[in-house]
Amino acid sequence: MKTTAVERRAELLRLYTGMPWQSARRRVEAAAPGSLLIPQPDADQMLLEARVMAALAWRRITTLHPWGIEYVDPRSDRLLIRFEADPVEQHDPEETQALDLAKALLPRADEHGDIQGVPGARTHVEGGQVMLRVLDTSASVTLLGLDPDAWLRAVDVQDRQMGAYGMTPCHRDMPTRWHPAERPYRRPGRRGTAASAWLTSGLLRRVGLIRTLGAPLAVTGWLGHHERGGNER
Is the pLDDT of residue 220 over 60? Predict the structure, then answer.
């Protein structure tokens, strides 16, 4: 049982985010007294996180953790997301975290100009980590747990596949500028995704709660045999 104030706050942070205990404790010890356990992001960061959460909501691969996220590390100016590793025995070589995330996150325009993925998002490998940033903002999400070389290969595969489907990879055509199809998403105002960003961003920053609450709910019964008939209960 956690006895000190630091330990209790670290345990809360661990339950909210899924962060390892020692990391959560270090974060609490380094934080100012009375500060929020989970900082509130600015408007651009919040909108990016909301769009990332929307993109991750329907994973195309089977994951152990919710949305394949082991834990998150929320900061006031950025978010770090640790994704689980690919299974050791891979039945389908294309069902990898890197390729699925590339398909989910990288923006692409269809023949009607509609965008799939995160508008304005561009990824780079920085310091051995995959960074996702939005053009003309300081908003960023770090995708931990991905091998940089595997990510770059996945991006190439995704771009070729999207091209074969008649879609335009916005990040490939315009790596440093907004693609014309992305521009309507540049200043969304207080409508649509922007209006509800506090909710989806807030969920992503507290993704550990899904497991914290879900694991006990999943273990509410047992398997046994009726006294008669041999049916399992």
Answer: no
**Cβ neighbours of residue 196 under 8 Å, at least 6 residues apart?**
50
Q: How confident is the model at residue 55 (pLDDT cuts 50, 70, 90)?
A: very high
- CA pair distance 29, 54, nearest whole angstrom: 32
Its pTM stands at 0.86
pLDDT of residue 190: 46
Q: How far apart are CA 103 and CA 148, in angstroms?
A: 16
pLDDT digits (tens, 9 = 90+) for 137-173: 999 999 999 999 999 999 999 999 988 888 999 999 8
Nearest to 7 by CA among 26, 44, 43, 154: 26
The strand pairing partners of 109, in sequence order, are: 115, 168
| Residue 108 near residue 116 (C-beta atoms within 8 A) | yes
Task: In whole angstroms, give the CA distance from residue 230 to residue 124.
Answer: 58
Instruction: Give the pLDDT confidence score for residue 211 in this predicted structure.
Output: 78
Burial state string for 54-69 with b = 16 or more CB within 10 A and e = fewer than 16: bbbeebebebebbbbb
CA-based diameter of the chain, in Å? 70
Distance CA 212, CA 11 (A): 12
Give the Å distances, CA to CA, from 118 to 114, 192, 204. Answer: 12, 14, 15
Letter for the amino acid at 181? A
How far does CA 89 lie from the centroid of its chain?
Answer: 24
Interval 108-121 mean pLDDT: 90
- Region 55-72: what's the mean pLDDT? 91
